[in-house]
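[step 3/7] fold_predict: job queued, chain A
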Amino acid sequence: MTGSQRQRLLYAMTVVVAEKGYIAATVADVTARAGVSRKTFYELFADKEECFISAAETGRELMVKRLEASFARSSAQSLSRVATLRASIRAFLGLIAEEPEFAKAFFLETAAAGGRAWEHQESCRSWFAESMRAWHVRTPGYRRVPHETYMAAADATHEAVCRCLRQGRIGEVPALEDGVLHICLALLGVPNSAEDAGG
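[step 4/7] structure written:
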């Protein structure tokens, strides 16, 4: 039962923060939404911040699984390198559109949650950047670029998503696919024509 209560609290934290913002959200809001006692909350989490970070980690694990599955499907289908990247971007943006509470809570409210939550988000961006590097080194005509280039691709993707969310246009996030792909290819020096050429 404890596992079920923990999952309900994590989901409730995500929804409450998406609705009210991290600063305004309270433990009472979360426990009421989850239907779990305050006592149980503090048996599972030290405080609101720990619960928020745990919820963020759950979301990150979902994102990683989705993107790894996309890479696996692309490999099985023998897609071109650029088509593989496009498929992964599509999977990432699709997940955000499918999980609006998660997107609003963790893309827009992490800064308000403070240092530990911000460090967690930075680790997510680093993972995205490393995934980009792993894709890039297997691309025909690969030329080495600084690590900061991959981080720039991650940051640009993050900001494009955040802009949609701040403007209340979460349904338009999947439409960022072409723009995000173009940004990533341009930063890494991979020509757009490689997609049509099978690169």
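[step 5/7] annotate
The domain at 47-197 is CATH 1.10.357.10 (Tetracycline Repressor; domain 2).
The chain has eleven helices and no strands.
exit 0
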